[in-house]
Amino acid sequence: MKVTMRVDGADVAAEIDRPGESLLATLRDRLGRTGSKNACEQGECGSCTVLLDGAPVCSCLVATAQCEGRDVKTVVGAVPRPVRDAFVQCGAVQCGFCTPGLLVSVADLLGRNGDPSDLDIREALAGNLCRCTGYEKIIDAVHTAAAGLAGEPR
Amino acid sequence: MPEPATPTPPPWAAGGVGHTPAPAARPDAAHEHAAPPAADTGPRSSATGAGPRNAAAHSGPRSGADAPHRPQPPGEPAAAPRTGAELPQEPRPPIGPPSPPASAAPTLDGEAAYRTRTSAAVPANAVTARPDGTVGQSPIRPDAEAKVNGTFDYASDLAFDGMLWGHTLRSPHPRALIRSIDTGPALALPGVAAVLTAADVPGKLHYGLIEADQPVLAPGEVNYQGEPVAIVAAETLDLARRAAERIAVDYEPLEPQCDPSEAVEAGAYFRYQPVRVGDPDTAEAAVVVTREYEVGMQDQAPLGPESGVAVPTGGGLVLHVATQWLHSDLEQIAPCLGLEPERIHLEMAGIGGAFGAREDLSVQIHMAMLALRTGRPVKMMYDRAESFLGHVHRHPARMRYEHGADADGHLVYVKAHIVLDGGAYASTTEAVVGNAASLAVGPYRVEHASIDAWGARTNNPPCGAMRGFGAVQTCFAYESQMDALADALDLDPLEIRRRNAIARGDQLITGQVIDAYEPDPAAPADPDRARPFSPLADLLDRFTDLPVPPVPADRDIVELPGGTGNTTHGEGVRRGVGYGVGLKNICYSEGFDDYSTARVRLELGGPEHDGEPVAYIHTAAAEVGQGHWNLQTQIARTELGVRHVVLLPNDTKIGSAGSSSASRQSYMTGGAVKAACEAVRDLWQDRDLADGPIEATRVFRHRATKPMDPVTGQGDSHVQLALCVHRATVDVDVELGLVKVVDLTCVQDVGKILNPVALEGQIHGGTAQGLGLAVMEEIVTDGGRVKNASFTDYLIPTILDMPPMRLRIVENADPEAPYGLRGAGEPPTLSSTPAIVAAIRDATGLPLTRVPVRPEHLTVRRPS
């Protein structure tokens, strides 16, 4: 079947041959958009988080067949520059495999709450596993990103 | 080839290698005239039998079969280059060599330059760093921009034209004979290109890091659940998986040996290592504590799955792999493929974390076999469940410890009986046992010790390298014992450690003398000037001005044990505080010939570099996330005084860098890059870069170590020792057995801070993995079968599980190490586990002799 959707601002069409194919598999293997990472395929690690019509989802748990006509934003299209810069500057990136999913979750959080507390951050990012950082620098980065976004016109 | 003339020994070969003392950096003149780093004259072209096709192919980006092809999404520009885009407009530094520091070693040789008037080509996948940051600073990582943009190519992101997908069929049985395998039904599926079994292995049937005992594909029997039996290549991954299910394997299940203690008694073990010093049987102690401890099987759980692509090149192969040690991979792969190593080129793909899990081979030989058979590129990528079965784990341990002390708490003797479960195949068990035995009492002075350590062979999952490598297990036991002694003598946990803290001039139980410490001159002076400097007492004393955090007045429920589960509003919650000390050996031990190779080339840059000198660095060192690429650029800027640094791809065209493990890359490849830069700098004094580039290759070795005596364990087996101390504060809901770690404060001696941000990241991350082992992480097996091979059932710490972490970083330099550094990645993983368990004991009064501590350990009273 053919599924058309909007990915990071571009209209794309994907021909899928399995009804159960995940949005993550379509993005990565059919569309070559490898920014979203596959680390568990069970919705446990958050590495594949994308915004689906603006809401954060694990793209490994969404069937591509459900995405007809919908808007998908990956790390490429969902994350404001100051959020990426904050991760780079604060040392929140080590191996970086969790980073694309985390960035999407952070973008979602900061879209809802422009000045989150540490606890707000911990709750919002509880679905994104990171094995390298112990999360300290990630919390620093979210605060830095919030300040960066506050300082720029929205 | 830029390899040392001596044959490369197997990793950690105990005593098998010549131990000629070597200067820290030794000239390697044979390497100086090697091909320029980017010239395409390596194994690839020799494998295809053709030289560079033309000048453009010679100097341009990678071309031909091994050039990654990424389908280009419509409407999206090409992937951004891996460069720091913004170059700050700073005044240009003068173009000329910096004066060598007064203490610099004299020029090592006079012919270190590779000189040519033509500029070396830079591969497309070279990494250009932003032009600032010396040793001691925290420049932006050169890989960070691509990682936040989603354009960094991890191994699992690679795609090639005409690529097939590979998949592995694994044994469902922990032990069985294979009566027959019928691949016909799988081959009958349209789109299946190959189905291979042990009968198709082109060369040697076995591989291994130390001992080649692990079958490439099971030849007639399987010895653990998940052992590879057959491999499939097909047009899609889904098809390859379905084809694997159709392979008919007739197994005859056998009774597995799953008890490591019984295995040892039956003589099934990979290594037995005793340590004997003094006479613990006659030593008189006022107080004796005897306990048995258990450590569960921990998984490294890097988020990036095992993955790679094998690309046939006509008689040879290019392997794009995410590994911790390219050259060890090559040495294991080539014999199994029946190919000369020169016909195989390994190129590092982006690594999504490692922590030891990428030290053993996973997809490498399998995808290579499929590529050779089909003549097409073959990609393999494990899913999470397969990853849990497809790499080694941290050895589970059973340890019986007896500590005797005098009435003042000074250790009199230690006896320990340590059984580590190595599982079905050798992997690195031999070296893990050496660490467990030699570090079995930790950083404490004791004259009498009797240690027996085994690495059992069972039908459990194979175990090998994980951050901490044999030192984690005994650390949990000896630190628990120190607390038990403190309890028995009513001593403060810091005080008993202080009284026994090893000092300069003391000996480990192996007889190795504690040396190589230059106390930080800025540190407060020891009031007791008569006593020799104790690197441990120094760290313990730093806690006096790091108070335990108070219990906040108004706590959000998320901050309580159970969190949003709404299990308590504070009732039944008790607070506890505990300490843990870890002692880790840095670099490879026991006589292993541990070295790293670096080539540095300095040339005048083009307009994109403002005509300034550019340093090109070529090593095979794995950037696993720790920040090693960044450190290399910092070293080059420090030693050469240049701003611009380009990192050439990590591959097997340069000599080995050794593994990104044992907290060794800053020391070893950092040392090699430093030595190569120093050589270039010295040559630059007499040359003008306008006349051509200057290049030098250096092989760096640390001081030689010795094997442990097989009977007494005596010997200077370690290079460098590193200490870390944690204090944990926990809240425990004693009714429900739920634990919330509320604070982790760490004091660690790193010798010299090379990059503050990266260092803090290592300590935070290592601490988190120690927390995981303390309260949640364990691969549960039942009769040799893994019961929880998923992130649903194998829990790793989330951001809600991690407390704020306060760090106090100490710089007691090691004068033998580059810049005085001390390896830093592993020690925090040792100490955080016992600190957290000590804190839970403090809160509950329970003995807690097993990690991970589970709710039932806190709430269920066992019949005694």
TrEMBL record, chain A:
One of its GO terms (molecular function) is oxidoreductase activity. Keywords: 2Fe-2S, Iron, Iron-sulfur, Metal-binding, Oxidoreductase. Pfam families: Fer2 (PF00111), Fer2_2 (PF01799). Signal peptide: none annotated. The keyword Iron-sulfur applies. InterPro entries: 2Fe-2S-bd (IPR002888), 2Fe-2S-bd_dom_sf (IPR036884), 2Fe-2S_ferredoxin-like_sf (IPR036010), 2Fe-2S_ferredoxin-type (IPR001041), 2Fe2S_fd_BS (IPR006058), Beta-grasp_dom_sf (IPR012675), Diverse_Oxidoreductases (IPR051452). This is 2Fe-2S iron-sulfur cluster binding domain-containing protein.
